[in-house]
Amino acid sequence: MVNPSKKIKNLPPYLFGAIDILKARAFSKKLDVIDLGMGNPDLPTPEPIIERLIDTVKHHPRTHRYPQAKGMPKFRRAISEWYKRRFSVKLNPENEVVALIGSKEGISNFMHAFLDPGDIVLVPSPCYPVHYNSVILAGGTPYLMPLLEENKYLPVLEDIPEKVAKKSKIMILNYPNNPTTAVIEDLNFLKEVIKFARKYNIIVLYDNAYSEITYDGYIAPSFLQIEGAKDVGVEFHSFSKTFNMAGWRVGWACGNSEILSYLAKYKSYVDYGVPTFIQLAGVKALELEKEVKETVREYERRIDIFIGKLKKVNWQIKKPKATMYLWTKIPRPYSGMPSLEFSELLIETTGIAVAPGSGFGNYGEGYIRIAMVTHYKRFHDAYLRLRKFLQKNKKGMSNE
User: Fold this and answer.
1) What is the pTM (predicted TM-score) of this model?
2) Quick one: average pLDDT of 39-55?
3) Hey, which residues does 173 pair with through a beta bridge?
4) What HEC string does 102-167 produce?
5) Which domains are seen in the chain, by residue range?
6) What does the alpha-carbon distance between residue 172 and residue 181 come to, in Å, rounded to a whole number?
7) Could you give the CA distance from residue 284 to residue 275 in angstroms, rounded to a whole number?
8) pLDDT confidence of 223, banded at 50, 70, 90?
C-alpha cells in the first residue's frame, strides 16, 4: 500500500470535510438541513462585477491566456488605490502587492516559501484552519497562542517563552477574527506586536479578510497603517466575504516588498496566478461601496434577528462587532459535551449544521461557531427547532 507523507498523516481531519459528512447523513435521513456551518456566502455577487466578467470574457480573448503570477499591473494598482482610500496606507503596486488565488492559497504558499523543517510559527488557537494546517504541510512546527475570552481573544505576548520567540519565524494574527469574531479596539496592541516582531526578527502575517464586514460604527484597521508594520509584515485580503466572491478564488497580499518577493517567486513555480478576467472583475469590485454596505446590512439584519430570538430561550449571545459569525459557548445543559459531539447531536436532532469549536483548535473546545449564511427567514425556522431541542431538558439553559 502506498503511504502518504508524514505531513499529511499529521494533519487533523479537515473541519469542513467533517461538517459535510454530518450534512450528508442528515440529507440521507431526509432532514431539512439549515447549513450554518461553513462561512460560505449565500448572497449573490454584485451585478456590476458579473457584468465586467462577462464583457471581458466575451470581448477580450487575450484575457484567456496565462496570467502574470504576481498579478496584472492594473489589478495591483487598484489594490494600492483602495488601500489609500480605505486605510490611508501607501503601497507601491510594483513590489508591495501580490495577487492570490484566494487568501487560503496565499497563506499556504507563504508557509512553503519561508519555512524549513522545524521552524516555529506562532499560531493563534482557535484559528481559521489553514493558519495551523499550512504550517504542518510546509514542515513547520506550530506553537499555539491561546485566544481566551478573558483576554478579549488577543494573544498575550508576554506568555510566549523567550526560547520559543527566539526560534520563531512567523506570527499569524487575524482580526476581525475567525472564528471568535474578536476585533482590535486598541491599536497599542498592534504596536506591541511590531516591537515583539522586531526584537525577535519575526515576520507578522496579518489576515484581514473580514475588515469590511463590521457593525455598529466599528471600523477595522489595517495592520499596515501602524508605523513600522511594513518593516516586519504583510497583510492578506480576500474578495470572498466583502464582495460575495468566495467561488471566484481571488485575493491579495501586500506589505513588505522583500517578504512578498519570496511569495511571488514561490508562486511562479507552483501556479499561474489568478485568471486575468477575474482580476479585472476584482478591479471593478474595488470600486463598489453601495453593494458592500448592502451586504453588511443583510448580515447585521440576520444577526439581530437570530440573537433576539435566542434570547427568548435564555441563550445569551453577544452581538459581534465584525464578521458573519456568532461565536458562543455550548449552552446548558450540554455545556460539558465536546463541541463535535454537540454539533453531531444538533444536526441529527434538528437538521441545523454548525461548526464545532474544536475544529478551530484546542482552545476552541467548548464553543460553536454559527455562520449567518442562509435567508433571514430561515433563522425563524432554526429558532423553532432550537427551542424544541433545548426545552427537552427541563433544567433550562444559560451560558456560563
Assistant:
1) 0.92
2) 94
3) 206
4) CHHHHHHHHHHHHCCCCCEEEEEECCCHHHHHHHHHCCCEEEEEECCHHHCCCCCHHHCCHHHHHH
5) 11-39+290-390 (3.90.1150.10), 47-285 (3.40.640.10)
6) 16
7) 15
8) very high
